UniProtKB/TrEMBL annotation:
Catalyzed reaction equations: Hydrolysis of terminal, non-reducing beta-D-glucosyl residues with release of beta-D-glucose
Taxonomic lineage of the native organism: Bacteria, Bacillati, Bacillota, Bacilli, Bacillales
Class in the EC hierarchy, top level: hydrolase
Matches recorded under InterPro entries: GH, Glyco_hydro_1, Glyco_hydro_1_AS, Glyco_hydro_1_beta-glucosidase
Binding site for substrate: 20, 121, 165, 296, 399, 406-407
Active site: residue positions: 166 (proton donor), 353 (nucleophile)
Protein name, UniProt field: Beta-glucosidase
Annotated EC: 3.2.1.21
Sequence similarity: Belongs to the glycosyl hydrolase 1 family.
Length: 447
């Protein structure tokens, strides 16, 4: 059986996010977030699911850290709930919220696990949304206050930091497609918010440097791949737009100091213009220590006039799909790595999310998720191919440690290495957990 060897220094871990796992939404002073509002709005989330309890990780974090320790990871990525720290987004600090994250981080460090802290994973305090949310530039100031507080509290304990998770989703799924909180459908609003999220990112990185916070700070970028259906210019340009909205739109301003012109023109044609003010691009254009790569899927695609935002249609016939209907296309991850290296140079790439949604049948206390194991084998092969090609990949985090609240899909879409019985909160290690544990321990995998 051939094996694939990984470099000794590659960091291994898993990832979660506050609203998806914590629960305890009204406990110890936490304020409401836009996802509390959105998930309690009828029709927004499948089965009427919400994050009120989720995986109850707020009370069970020690158990979760034990699962991480037994798994053998050296990094655990989680996010801080802004409205636990500042229940109204700014103003009065909530010490009990701060204390929860000290307890979580201390427990991780006790077990020799490096925390990777995401400052914003979509759960904007509702009080700030009531004042216009990310459409209001003043929300950026509130974010900087929040970031400063988190940096002050956890500097020295946390060595890996991420600013804003998947700004494509936070801007466009949330304000153009309208399928995520707060649920607007307005392209100009989405473009405005994408710019303000980049401003928040850049000013946070500047603050991180000015405060001399220890460690590394980076992004958490949606990535996807589109293989042109043909070599016709219209097909290739359509694919470039899809990849460009995921990657170029958010990383060019950070790394190159300018937006991708072809996308600026595309949005202008669609009636949306960037709200750039004097000094904005300089504020965004701050050196980062790594690009966080969140990859799930890709496919063949071609130009189709007036199809969606980007005049593109997916041709998915060549691929098996996961249970969330995303095509399985591991070669796309390999191409994303090369795309990032060619476009942005040798900035370290850290895979901060990759994983599969599977049906996951619990039978006699076991979940035989061979489909998820195969997904990981395929995508870790892409990681190894890229590393062997000279791409600077420093870590790999599986999404996710636990089955959790998968946003508008609710709890019916399971991504965890650990099965969660949402009636009892029992955690049950899936076969993929044991498989991943072996890969981490050995530093290689059989294929
Ligand atoms: N043609 N139009 N394109 C422009 C608009 O694209 C629409 C893009 O849709 C998308 C894009 C990305 C996702 C997605 C979901 N997850 C899983 C979560 N990641 C963070 C963590 O919380 C996980 O739960 N990762 N990525 C879904 C839908």
């Amino acid at each position: 059986m051939p094996i694939i060897q990984f470099p000794k220094g590659l960091k291994w871990g898993t990832a979660t996010a506050a609203y998806q796992v914590e629960g305890a939404v009204s406990e110890d002073g936490r304020g409401l977030s836009i996802w509390d509002t959105f998930s309690h709005t009828p029709g927004k989330v499948k089965n009427g699911d919400n994050g009120d309890i989720a995986c109850d990780s707020y009370h069970r974090y020690a158990e979760d850290v034990d699962l991480l320790h037994q798994l053998g990871v050296n990094v655990y990525r989680f996010s801080v709930s802004w409205s636990r720290i500042y229940p109204n987004g700014k103003g009065e600090l909530n010490p009990k919220g701060v204390n929860y994250y000290h307890n979580l981080i201390d427990k991780l460090l006790e077990k020799g696990i490096e925390p990777m802290l995401t400052l914003y994973h979509w759960d904007l305090p509702q009080a700030l949304q009531d004042d216009g949310g990310w459409a209001n530039r003043e929300t950026i100031d509130a974010f900087i206050l929040y970031a400063k507080t988190v940096f002050n509290e956890f500097n020295g304990k946390v060595k890996y930091w991420q600013t804003i998770n998947e700004p494509l989703c936070a801007a466009f799924l949330s304000n153009y497609q309208g399928v995520h909180a707060p649920g607007f459908q307005d392209l100009q609003l989405a473009v405005d918010i994408s710019h303000h999220l980049l401003l928040a990112h850049g000013r946070t990185v500047r603050l991180f440097r000015d405060m001399r916070v220890e460690g590394e700070i980076g992004t958490a970028t949606n990535t996807t791949w589109r293989e042109p259906f043909s070599i016709k210019a219209e097909d290739m340009e359509a694919c470039k737009r899809e990849i460009g909205l995921n990657i170029d739109w958010f990383l060019d301003p950070i790394i190159k100091g300018e937006y991708p012109g072809y996308m600026v023109e595309w949005f202008k044609k669609k009636g949306a213009e960037l709200p750039i003010k004097e000094g904005d691009l300089e504020a965004i254009h701050q050196p980062i220590d790594f690009i966080g790569v969140n990859y799930y899927s890709g496919n063949i695609a071609r130009y189709k006039k007036d199809a969606g935002l980007l005049d593109i249609e997916n041709i998915e016939i060549d691929y098996d799909k996961t249970y969330i209907e995303w095509p399985i296309y591991a070669d796309g991850l390999y191409k994303v790595f090369h795309y990032l290296a060619e476009r942005y140079g040798d900035i370290p790439l850290f895979v901060t999310e990759n994983g599969a949604c599977c049906i996951d049948q619990l039978s006699e206390g076991r979940v035989n998720d061979q489909d998820r194991i195969k997904y990981y084998q395929q995508h870790l092969t892409a990681v190894s191919r890229a590393i062997e090609s000279g791409i600077n990949i420093t870590g790999y985090l599986a999404w996710s440690l636990l089955d959790n609240f998968e946003w508008a899909e609710g709890y019916g879409k399971r991504f965890g290495l650990v099965y969660v019985d949402f009636h009892t909160m029992e955690r049950i290690k899936k076969d993929s957990y044991y498989w991943y544990k072996k890969v981490i321990a050995n530093g290689w995998m059989e294929i």
